[in-house]
From TrEMBL:
<dbReference type="Pfam" id="PF00005">
    <property type="entry name" value="ABC_tran"/>
</dbReference>
<keyword id="KW-1133">Transmembrane helix</keyword>
<feature type="transmembrane region" description="Helical">
    <location>
        <begin position="38"/>
        <end position="59"/>
    </location>
</feature>
<keyword id="KW-0067">ATP-binding</keyword>
<feature type="domain" description="ABC transmembrane type-1">
    <location>
        <begin position="40"/>
        <end position="321"/>
    </location>
</feature>
<dbReference type="Pfam" id="PF00664">
    <property type="entry name" value="ABC_membrane"/>
</dbReference>
<dbReference type="GO" id="GO:0005524">
    <property type="term" value="F:ATP binding"/>
</dbReference>
<feature type="transmembrane region" description="Helical">
    <location>
        <begin position="258"/>
        <end position="280"/>
    </location>
</feature>
<dbReference type="InterPro" id="IPR036640">
    <property type="entry name" value="ABC1_TM_sf"/>
</dbReference>
<keyword id="KW-0547">Nucleotide-binding</keyword>
<keyword id="KW-0472">Membrane</keyword>
<feature type="transmembrane region" description="Helical">
    <location>
        <begin position="79"/>
        <end position="101"/>
    </location>
</feature>
<dbReference type="InterPro" id="IPR039421">
    <property type="entry name" value="Type_1_exporter"/>
</dbReference>
<feature type="transmembrane region" description="Helical">
    <location>
        <begin position="286"/>
        <end position="306"/>
    </location>
</feature>
<dbReference type="InterPro" id="IPR003439">
    <property type="entry name" value="ABC_transporter-like_ATP-bd"/>
</dbReference>
<feature type="domain" description="ABC transporter">
    <location>
        <begin position="340"/>
        <end position="615"/>
    </location>
</feature>
<keyword id="KW-0812">Transmembrane</keyword>
């Protein structure tokens, strides 16, 4: 039996078994195979659990015919004792079945969450360029629960199908008419319920799509809550969220109507089956073809068979929902990473000069270099290129949601078109990654280096970092490699003393998710401290002090060069306090490096530099030079 939690290695470990994403049904079958021996163990226990329920009515009938009707008290006692043993056996097997099936459910649920996590690790920043956030969260949460429910109902349905066939054989051997009635009842239920499944599936798909959109809206609102409050946008975005939640409710009600219709058919046919079985059974007894005990057994079987018939209806419902969820999961898991492994990987010489072909910027090794641009996006794009991150693209993300008025072939064509759009987007990413990257380190293009090596040696800390819940120590040193002195040195350089003091418990103080309990400046310094603690060979910082006050910024500026002495550090900033301490500054104009030098020299010699760095760029250069000297 598989241990819990499930061992998922797909996407991040080479050669690991990845989900079958050829179709939703292929993916669901892969999920069953992933349960391995546990699925078959669950099925075996479920079949054992069905044995007492299958033989119980027959034993009751035999007790009546051979004991009660015959007046044999000893035979009656024997059958009652045997029935008690079977009942206890059934209770024990039921407990075992429930234990195994819950384990199977949890493995499917948390296995899906781990798959999403590993897919996010594999794709990195590319995932959010291709798929809406709400779609990914829905696959990880609600869809994973659907897959777990399918594992449970599949095991139960197979075991009850076996029980249904056994009961049909028992009844058929006793009475051909009643056996035929039992055999026909289940196929008739499926036949009448099938036309209702398609509209139910459609509305469940609409509900799922609307719900993922609602989740995306919620994450956007939470992420931008501070800005929304600042501009008074809470009511507007809150109204949009409320409107979307009503659309989710409406689609849920529509799906519920069809679900109720399927349930109603199941209840109606199940009840009609019992009535027909009893009517036919009493006629058989009246005509002497059945005994009283056999009639009681048939009544027990009639009541028992309601359970498999209801289970078949439930299986159809959960299968329909799982296919909808699997279609969404396939849209996420089928995405290929754009990066390709070089045929002959090169070694990254982190002590060599870095050259960016697009901007013409060259960064000397072992010094503190700062990049200034009037357009922050240009310097941020340079940071992405240095870290080998694909550039962000404007435009709508490709979702699997289709217009609600589309049905049948039109819906399938639209869904295929969305899939092709995702494929084309992935193809463009792959083509971009296959080309020479345009950034060389020691003459070696980054495309010739394994991506893991690039990530290991080059760290880019951008303007939208993530802060996770946990202790301050875990946030700064997630791998637990730092000594206390190293951690305190990073804290000192980032001037994050107040972050340490604000958390009861110091290094063991608990941070809230996204660092909600911290101010913007504290969160920024926490992220800077984390980047410094990682101690990469090449560190790229994007606007690391944009949210701190001037006094704190001056302390960080004075300490950063000493902390990173001898290692390559690139800072994207236009802050004079930071620029004053740079070993070298590169000026970008329209994304191209046009000047380089020290802060004081550029203030004097470059009007373009002054216009970016100093308000009122027409100030007297001699005054600016004097101010620069004063700041020393």
């Amino acid at each position: 039996m598989r241990d819990f939690p499930p061992q998922i290695r797909a996407y991040t470990d080479r050669g690991a078994d990845a989900p079958d994403t050829r179709s939703p049904r292929a993916f669901l079958w892969w999920m069953v195979r992933q349960n391995g021996s546990l699925f078959w163990a669950g099925l075996l226990v479920a079949l054992i659990w069905m044995v007492p329920q299958t033989v119980g009515p027959w034993m009751v009938g035999r007790a009546i015919d051979t004991g009660i009707v015959a007046g044999d008290s000893a035979a009656t006692a024997q059958w009652v004792l045997a029935l008690a043993v079977v009942t206890v056996f059934g209770a024990a097997s039921g407990i075992a079945f429930h234990t195994v099936i819950v384990r199977e459910w949890l493995i499917a649920l948390y296995g899906t969450t781990m798959l999403v996590t590993r897919k996010a690790l594999q794709l990195g920043h590319v995932l959010t360029r291709r798929t809406p956030t709400g779609e990914v969260l829905s696959v990880s949460g609600s869809d994973g629960d659907q897959f777990g429910a399918l594992m449970e109902i599949t095991t139960r349905a197979i075991s009850q199908l076996a029980a249904y066939l056994v009961v049909a054989a028992i009844v058929l051997s006793t009475s051909v008419r009643m056996g035929v009635l039992v055999l026909v009842s289940a196929p008739l239920l499926v036949l009448l319920g099938t036309p209702l499944l398609r509209p139910m599936q459609r509305w469940q798909g609409v509900e799922r799509s609307r719900n993922s959109e609602l989740t995306s809206m919620a994450t956007d609102i939470v992420g931008g809550l501070r800005i929304l409050r600042g501009i008074g946008g809470e009511e507007t975005f809150g109204g949009n969220y409320a409107g979307q939640s009503q659309r989710v409710r409406q689609s849920g009600v529509s799906a519920g109507r069809w679900l109720a219709a399927v349930e109603s058919v199941g209840v109606l046919l199940s009840g009609g089956f019992v009535v027909a079985l009893m009517w036919l059974g009493t006629r058989e007894v009246a005509q002497g073809r059945l005994t009283v005990g056999q009639l009681v057994s048939f009544l027990g079987y009639g009541l028992f068979l309601i359970q498999p018939m209801r289970t078949f209806v439930e299986f159809a419902q959960k299968w329909t929902r799982s296919v909808v969820s699997a279609r969404k999961a396939v849209a996420v898991f089928s995405q290929r990473p754009p990066w390709v492994h070089p045929d002959e990987p090169a070694t990254l010489d982190t002590g060599a000069e870095i050259v960016d072909r697009e901007s013409g910027a060259s960064i000397r090794p072992g010094i503190l270099t700062m990049v200034v641009s009037a357009v922050p996006d240009d310097s941020a794009a340079l940071a992405d290129r240095l870290g080998r991150y694909l550039p962000s693209e404007e435009g709508a993300l490709v979702s699997d949601e289709i217009p609600e008025d589309m049905k049948g072939r039109a819906a399938r064509r639209e869904r295929s078109a969305r899939a092709r759009a995702r494929e084309e987007q992935a193809h463009r990413d792959e083509e971009r990654a296959r080309q020479p990257w345009g950034v060389t380190v020691g003459g070696v293009d980054l495309s010739r280096v394994e991506l893991d090596d690039v990530r290991r040696h080059i760290l880019v800390s951008d303007t939208s970092p993530q802060v996770f819940a946990g202790t301050l120590r875990a946030a700064v040193d997630p791998l637990g490699r730092l000594t206390r002195e190293q951690a305190e040195r990073a804290l000192y350089t980032a001037a994050a003393d107040d972050v340490f003091d604000a958390l009861p418990g110091g290094w063991q103080g608990e941070l809230e998710e996204r660092g909600r309990g911290l101010s913007g400046g504290q969160r920024q310094r926490l992220v800077l401290m984390r980047a410094l603690a990682a101690d990469p060979d090449i560190l790229v910082l994007v606007e690391p002090t944009s949210a701190v006050d001037a006094h704190t910024e001056a302390r960080i500026a004075a300490r950063l060069g000493e902390h990173r002495a001898g290692r390559t550090t690139v800072v994207m900033t236009a802050s004079p306090l930071l620029l004053h301490h740079a070993d070298e500054i590169i000026l970008l104009e329209s994304g191209v490096a046009t000047a380089r030098g020290r802060h004081a020299n550029l203030l004097t010699d470059s009007a373009a530099y002054r216009s970016v760095v100093v308000r009122g760029g027409d100030a007297d250069p001699s005054v600016l030079s004097h101010l620069s000297e004063e700041s020393r």
